[in-house]
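Side project, low priority. Logging it here so it doesn't get lost.
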Amino acid sequence: MVENLADQEYNELMSTFRQHVLSRQTLLAFFIAAFFIFLAVPLSYSQGARILFREDFNNLENWRPIYFPKISRHTAYTVETNGGKSFLKAESNASASALVYKEDFNIYDYPQARWRWKVNNVYQNAVPETKSGDDYPIRVYIIFKYDPETAHALDKVKYGIAKKLYGEYPPHSTLIYVWANSDEQKQIMTSPYTDKARLIALEKGKGRVGIWQQEEVNILQDYRAAFGADPPASASIAIMNDSDNTGQASVSYLGFIEVFKDVG
């Protein structure tokens, strides 16, 4: 009975990538990769900002794929070039998979991020706040790690059980920046799969389809607005184009992504 309850709690906590249930082996590989390597990146300065790291997608060496065992079709991520500039191309067709950046960062030291993205299309009849409509042509995830030092008593019990069963803590919570399919989608929305994830619509609908858009966000401020609390300090980035729920197809692009903080 205790193990069944623990599995139920664990599946809820692991819904930061929606509710695709990963195998235990995949989960262990995920966490080992996440915690094992932290590459030191020299700090650089640009336009009043101190940049912790920047990805220009010259290759995918800094990213690792995440596949979902119950999803047989995977999104294709490739590096393309145009005019000497590289970018990431993401193509889904009734499919889902993600890329996760290999480094973590401290959200309080570097609370801001920016990127450039473009979509060729959005999904038709994808109703927000429903599981059947929970597909987006592009998502940027900020995944927050569970911190036992700051956790409430109930969370300590839940995460403690999960760690005993699986060897690592599951993520604490997630912000998901999306290019929404509908103009009517709320600016901030709870995931239809878990209340531990909030979706933030930075772009909506067809109005800017096919046009590069640059986004800049303050992750710390957005987290407080979305959850009404402060996040754990350690975070990581992931990206995804998914269409497994709607059964449709889309193509999207990321030109760069960087984590930084304003200085002076």
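Brief comment: DSSP finds four helices and 15 strands in the chain.
Revisit when time allows.
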